[in-house]
Design a protein that fits this description.
Helix content of chain A: 25-40%
Low-confidence stretches of chain B: none
Number of helices of chain B: 11
Structural class of chain B: mainly alpha
Radius of gyration of chain A: 20 Å
Largest sheet of chain A: 6 strands, mixed
Number of domains of chain B: 1
Shape of chain B: globular
Shape of chain A: globular
Structural class of chain A: alpha/beta
Helix content of chain B: over 70%
Oligomer: heterodimer
Number of strands of chain B: 0
Number of helices of chain A: 10
Distance between the termini of chain B: 29 Å
Mean pLDDT of chain A: 89
């Protein structure tokens, strides 16, 4: 690691983190971490426990770094509540007030940004439309699917039109349609000049949103730059996809014929596929299961390949 | 978002926070159960006064000093104040509130005021029923209405002050009950009986405003009374100022906790 501050995104830099550390009792969250992040989409990539969520919470102001400083749009975050007008944050976990509809949730949080009722309602409407939940906006959030809950969390972060948007594992648990929606929205926001930071432990997810990544490991920035460099490393390690479906045997039979598929493991209710072309495989699996009525239920990536790359970089 | 769309003052945000908090408190089943129980107890006391040979004035004073002061008011306050911040932590919604451009003390006040107002309304209603059903038939309006006004204010202010104390302690220790119960046991039950330092307890000032601290020593007698732990009657407005000051101080403490504490949610 050099002394140069890791940098991603355009100029001017929206987020400036300087020598920030945060620890939980005797566990390090982030350690003397500095990074500059500017407009565009930046992927914050690292294995579970690397410090991504801690960094997100420190940048968002939920946690104050025990040492060091965070600045948003050149203004220090500490003791400066007005800076929060520039920040939208999507937490990793599901958290909602009981009995609220999606619309009430977004309007309430938007009004807490100082917007009056009509402006907040209009802003919420636009944000809900952007995440594709207009038809379900008046349903209670408790009735939403996991993917819809992720999208309504994104809507509350967007509604007040911040120029710094932080999304902690936003694709967790999303269905293919919701996933596509969120990915497209993130790309769109980044292209429009918003500084978007997305954390994930799945390289492929980040790859669909941006080329710029910051790799985090053990609370430190391990590397920063273009995702292709990571991809080159990762290509040596086949990517694993875990697919839940009703007819895994038939799906496995379809998948083995593809050149990029290097291994297929079969179980009663799922298939585990190792591929050298994750992008193609992520497109192919939902399509195949839908076309052949295999009862697609979802797919996740244990992403051991990324762990292997991190191990390589650490060593 | 154009800045012109945003209100320059934080007043709108606080108003929104307060109205949502009020809605939440009023929708909580526990609020209605406690309110209903309070009214029921008050009606029972009115029944006792009306259908037994017991003196209405005595029943009123017993309800006030034996039930409301040591039990009902702290119970209502801990029920409404204790969970104010703790509940947001437990359901993980606190970050949504903390990450809004609202000063933390205002955030705390915005949550506290509706809960404290509902608490004061509940205890005030209970007191009002007992006053109208027991005290007035026994003593009449003329001689009691002024004292009732002070007592009513004292009960309301004590409820508000307790709610603020329990909310701040809940936020500080991330526990809606235990810290409040400990505070009540130590400060309000033990310290309120001790010479001099009893003046820092809500119980003392509530008793003073409700006319239970009747002696009125002056000069050196006041010092002797303070040291001996005897009954000390201070002007009611001193206690009113103390309870109001305690509420403001606890709101500040709550705001400070929200500012400084790391909520690792």
């Amino acid at each position: 690691m050099t002394d140069a501050i890791p940098t991603t995104g355009g100029d001017p830099k929206t987020i400036q983190v300087r020598k920030a550390s945060y620890w939980y009792d005797d566990v390090i969250g982030i350690n003397d971490l500095s990074v500059d992040i500017g407009p565009g989409v930046t992927g914050l990539l690292g294995p579970n426990g690397a410090g991504k969520s801690t960094l997100m919470k420190v940048i968002s102001g939920q946690l104050s770094p025990r040492t060091g400083e965070v600045r948003i749009n050149k203004r220090p975050l500490a003791g400066n509540p007005e800076v929060f007008a520039d920040i939208g944050f999507v937490p990793e976990f599901d958290a909602f007030w009981q009995g609220m509809s999606g619309r009430e949730f977004v309007v309430y949080l938007t009004r807490l940004h100082g917007l009056d009722k009509s402006n907040a309602a209009a802003a919420a409407e636009r944000a809900i439309e952007r995440v594709g939940l207009t038809d379900d906006a008046d349903r209670p959030v408790s009735d939403y699917s996991k993917g819809m809950r992720q999208r309504i969390k994104v809507a509350q972060a967007l509604a007040h039109e911040p120029n710094c948007l932080l999304l902690d594992e936003p694709l967790n648990g999303t269905d293919p349609v919701g996933r596509r929606h969120i990915i497209d929205l993130i790309r769109e926001l980044g292209a429009a000049g918003t500084t978007v930071v997305v954390s994930s432990h799945v390289l492929h997810e980040i790859e669909q949103m941006t080329d710029e990544v910051v790799l985090i490991h053990s609370g430190r920035v391990l590397a920063d730059g273009h995702i292709q460099e990571i991809r080159d490393l990762i290509d040596e390690h086949p990517h694993t996809i875990h697919v839940d479906c009703d007819r895994p045997r038939e799906l496995a039979a379809e998948l083995v014929g593809f050149e990029d598929v290097v291994r297929v493991e079969l179980a009663d209710d799922h298939v585990r596929v190792a591929t050298r072309d994750p992008a193609a495989c992520y497109d192919r699996i939902p399509r195949l299961t839908l076309e052949n009525d295999f009862g697609f239920q979802g797919m996740t990536s244990p992403d051991n390949d990324l762990d292997a790359v991190f191990q390589y970089l650490v060593d | 978002m154009p800045s012109s769309d945003r209100q320059t003052a934080g007043a709108t945000s606080i108003g929104v926070l307060m109205s949502e908090e009020l809605r939440r408190v009023l929708r909580r089943r526990a609020t209605w159960i406690v309110g209903g129980l309070g009214v029921l107890v008050a009606l029972v006391m009115v029944g006792i006064s009306a259908f037994t040979s017991l003196d209405g004035h005595g029943v009123y004073r017993t309800t006030l000093n034996g039930l409301m002061r040591p039990l009902v008011i702290p119970f209502v306050a801990i029920l409404l104040g204790g969970p104010l911040i703790v509940e947001e932590v437990e359901q993980r919604t606190l970050p949504y509130l903390l990450l809004r451009p609202i000063p933390r003390a205002q955030l705390f006040a915005g949550k506290l005021i509706p809960a404290a107002a509902v608490g004061a309304a509940l205890t005030g209603a209970m007191l009002g029923i007992v006053y109208l059903g027991c005290e007035v038939p026994s003593m009449g309006w003329g001689d009691t209405i002024a004292d009732f006004g002070v007592t009513f204010g004292g009960v309301g202010l004590a409820t508000v002050a307790y709610t603020a104390v329990f909310a701040a302690l809940g936020a500080l220790f991330s526990s809606s009950l235990y810290a409040g119960i400990l505070y009540y046991g130590v400060v309000e039950l033990v310290i309120s009986q001790l010479p001099i330092i009893k003046l820092v307890s809500v119980q003392y000032h509530l008793a003073n405003m409700t006319g239970s601290e009747t002696a009125n020593p002056g000069g050196s007698s006041l010092i002797s009374a303070l040291l001996s732990g005897a009954s000390i009657g201070l002007p009611w407005w001193v206690s009113m100022l103390f309870l109001a000051g305690l509420t403001v101080a606890m709101t500040g403490v709550g705001g400070l906790v929200l500012s400084k504490k790391q909520f690792e949610i």
